[in-house]
Amino acid sequence: MIKRRISSITLLLALFSQFAIADVVIIVSPASGISSISQKQAKRIFLGKMKKVNGKALVAIDQNEGSASRDAFYKTVVKKSESQLKSYWSTRIFSGKGTPPKSVKNDDEVKSWVSANADAIGYTDSSKVDASVVVVYTNK
Questions:
Q1: What predicted TM-score, i.e. pTM, was given to this entire model?
Q2: What fold does the segment set 22-138 form as a domain?
Q3: Which of 8, 54, 83, 139 has a CA 20 to 30 Å removed from the CA of 41?
């Protein structure tokens, strides 16, 4: 009886954890002129290895640690855990090869920042997208 109950709880947690991962999209301002980017380009932009897309300079806007969108973005697009990301940036900073992207509090702040800056690129939960931004990548 107890084993069956534990198995049921484990199965329910596994199912709910699939829904807990946000459907994150990458966004830019309509004024940027960029209509799409690849997963590889997105990864390189947010790891500070790429600064331009189609000749257009972009500034990455990140979200604070602990944000559901940040966790989903780095897990699905960049393919790095939080600890791997910290290690990566520590090495880049120490070697003088770069600094992490500017970080804002949440999805709403990313959307606000990106819509107001033609050179900004960020990520947000897909439910936050409206006409003020353009989706350039969806991880499907």
A1: 0.83
A2: D-Maltodextrin-Binding Protein; domain 2 (3.40.190)
A3: 83
